[in-house]
Amino acid sequence: MATEELPPYPQMILRAIEALNSDNGSNKSTISKYIESTYENLPTGHSSLLTLHLNMMKASGELVFWKNNYMKRDPSAAPRRGRGRPPKPKEHRESPIAAKAVKMKVSSGSGKPRGRPRKLPQSVTTTALPPPSGRPRGRPPKVKALLTEVSVL
């Protein structure tokens, strides 16, 4: 949103934080008041643009947000690590141009046909084979013991 007379919002924000020069940083309202007093002809959505740019600068690491105040990041401090597991290092591969030159042409027809093979026609005359042993299929019936008559006195 930089015009001929207005610098970009990140520059205005950094200048405001430097000019306010507070040990604990500056909150959004003081930054906004400084920008409004210093620069004229601000756009109508100044507060929403300021919030957007503050969040972008906070996410990129240009600003540190602590206790509802924004501060410039200490250049000697280690950079913040992102969340989650870092990605695996990528192996060095050949250029895509060289890979295209090495690629062989795939033949359109392999020796094997596609799909499921067709069933071979069965012969109509099938002979019934006798069972392999003389026993019938399944579980044999339970043998009942013969009851003997008992006389009751």
UniProtKB/TrEMBL annotation:
The keyword DNA-binding applies. The keyword Lyase does not apply. Keywords: DNA-binding, Nucleus. GO terms for biological process: chromosome condensation; negative regulation of DNA recombination; nucleosome assembly. It is found in: Chromosome; Nucleus. It holds the Pfam family Linker_histone. Residues 71-153 are annotated as: Disordered. GO terms for cellular component: nucleolus; nucleosome. Residues 5-74 form the H15 domain. This is H15 domain-containing protein.
